């Protein structure tokens, strides 16, 4: 069995995966960003289009976006449900035309979406580095739970100990340093 990749190999693989992911996402007819609580989609359209020229349908589990009389820009199932009443769409002028901005409010505020619709290429959610500002509007307890979940998820991906396992190892190490006379060579972890 081959050994696990070296850190530099892992960086190269990650870089390659990220480049492929960026390329796939850039090829989509829309741009999207997310926080732990919501998803924002923006679609560039021509300046002469108005709200009545658009056909946008948001349901709990589906998204449909089209310019009337044309093939849909987005048409598919959402990976997770949304709060329809909290989700909106607006038209905003840009220097080169207009932006159709769609705001989806996630039903579950504790999960990252791998894509906007299930037929689109996925992103690797374990690589998401949450903005602290996005976590700062969660209350302290929820925030620390989310940060711990995300840390543990990343550690697992990398085959490293989770925060609890790390804590046990640190406590044991400290204890060993304080009690050099004791033999811990057979101590079982976990």
TrEMBL record:
It comes from the Eukaryota. It is found in: Cytoplasm. Keywords: Cytoplasm. It holds the Pfam family CS. One of its GO terms (cellular component) is cytoplasm. Residues 1-24 are annotated as: Disordered. Residues 25-117 form the CS domain. Residues 11-21 have a biased composition (Basic and acidic residues). GO terms for biological process: protein folding. Its main location: cytoplasm. Required for nuclear movement. May interact between microtubules and nuclei and/or may be involved in the generation of force used to move nuclei during interphase. This is Nuclear movement protein nudC. It comes from Tothia fuscella.
């Amino acid at each position: 069995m081959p050994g696990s990749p070296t850190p530099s190999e892992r960086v190269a693989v990650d870089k390659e995966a990220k480049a492929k992911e960026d390329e796939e996402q850039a090829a989509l007819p829309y741009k999207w960003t997310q926080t732990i609580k919501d998803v924002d989609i923006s679609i560039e359209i021509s300046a002469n289009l108005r709200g009545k020229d658009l056909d946008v349908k948001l349901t709990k589990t589906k998204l449909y976006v089209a310019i009337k009389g044309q093939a849909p820009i987005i048409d598919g199932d959402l990976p997770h449900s949304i709060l329809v009443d909290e989700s909106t769409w607006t038209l905003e002028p840009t220097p080169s035309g207009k932006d159709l901005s769609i705001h989806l409010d996630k039903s579950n505020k504790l999960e990252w979406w791998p894509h906007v619709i299930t037929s689109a290429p996925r992103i690797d959610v374990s690589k998401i580095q949450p903005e602290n500002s996005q976590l700062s509007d969660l209350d302290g307890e929820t925030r620390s739970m989310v940060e711990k979940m995300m840390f543990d998820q990343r550690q697992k991906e990398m085959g490293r100990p989770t925060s609890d396992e790390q804590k046990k190892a640190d406590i044991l190490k400290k204890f060993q340093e304080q009690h050099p006379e004791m033999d811990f060579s057979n101590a079982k972890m976990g």
